[in-house]
Specification:
This is Iron complex transport system ATP-binding protein. By secondary structure, this protein is α/β, with parallel strands linked by helices. The protein contains nine helices and twelve strands. It has one domain: P-loop containing nucleotide triphosphate hydrolases (Rossmann fold). α5 crosses α6. Bound molecules: adenosine-5'-triphosphate.
């Protein structure tokens, strides 16, 4: 089928300064498996990308490359202007906000919500200082308020619901004022109300011109917040389509990505999909 596959073109060299992620010919192989192959992808400062694909497509692997948590087996990855393999990743990571289920599992259950957020500024999980600066506390509380969970600041992480944990980790990912925000399935496990609330909050961030570049991984088009500008469809470790969301999100491309005959519908600024 006539699937669009348009790697983002950056003809003007000056544009390179605006790239927060640049992957060229990237492959990742582990234990005889090809997780990603021949991937070319760029993210600019003012772009908000959604990465969509079925289970096992390589989405988390892609995000871990962008988070400087993983090195490619082949090809080159630049993150925030630095080439992976030639940069101290411990200096790079505080410039990146990253939330994932793997991170949630590493948070100590007895940590308070406020400390989970504040400790991001120190690139640690778990409280390690007797007292944080009061500025840090103010910033953390501001972020908790923006995510609608300020009332949970003194609760321990282990007592939170799934949705409250997700919001705590998003607040944490914003604590360092990151230049790029990476969200791995932020709406997974949320009920309908929780999902809609999160989509609305992420949409507010996406439309804020001062917000960092964003990449959101999801399985569901329903979870794409209005304001997201670009989409990368991944299937079996390869790009199926990539580019402006309006060009890429089509029934045809979605069907090719998920290997089923799917129909995509748009209602206002939201997307919905079902099998034909
Ligand atoms: N260390 C590893 N060794 C071998 N295979 C691996 C390894 N890590 C991941 N994989 C495989 O690579 C593929 C891609 O994994 P990845 O987690 O990136 O996919 P995903 O698109 O995020 O999937 P999901 O939507 O289910 O979270 C999967 O088939 C996974 O089993």
């Amino acid at each position: 089928m006539g699937v669009v596959s348009e790697p983002t073109q950056h003809s003007d060299l000056a544009d390179l300064d605006d790239l927060v992620v640049r992957m060229a010919g990237v492959g990742v192989r582990r234990g005889g498996n090809t997780l990603l192959a021949d991937l070319d992808w760029s993210v600019e400062l003012d772009e908000r990308w959604v990465v969509l694909g079925p289970n096992g497509a390589g989405k988390t692997t892609l995000l871990r490359l962008a988070a400087a948590e993983l090195h490619p087996t082949s090809g080159t990855v630049h993150v925030l202007g630095e080439r992976l393999g030639r940069v101290d990743v411990f200096e790079l990571r505080p410039r990146i906000g990253f939330t994932s289920a793997a991170l949630a599992n590493r948070v100590p259950g007895d940590e308070t919500v406020r400390d989970v957020v504040i400790s991001a500024g120190y690139a640690v999980l778990g409280r390690w200082r007797e007292a944080y600066e009061s500025l840090d506390t103010e910033r953390a509380d501001e972020l908790l308020a923006a995510l609608g969970i300020k009332h949970l600041a003194t609760r321990t992480f282990g007592t939170l619901s799934e949705g409250e944990r997700k919001r705590t980790l998003i607040a944490r990912s914003l604590m360092t004022d990151p230049e790029m925000l990476l969200l791995d399935e932020p709406a997974a496990g949320l009920d309908l109300g929780g999902r809609e609330d999160l989509v609305a909050r992420l949409s507010t961030f996406a439309m804020d011109p001062d917000a960092p570049a964003m990449v959101l991984v999801t399985h569901h088009v329903e979870e794409i917040p209005p304001g997201f500008t670009h989409a990368l469809l991944l299937g079996d470790g390869r790009t199926v389509a990539s580019g402006l969301i309006d060009d890429v999100l089509t029934s045809e491309n979605l069907s090719a990505t998920f290997g089923q005959d799917l129909m995509l519908q748009r209602s206002g600024d939201r997307f919905f999909a079902r099998r034909r």
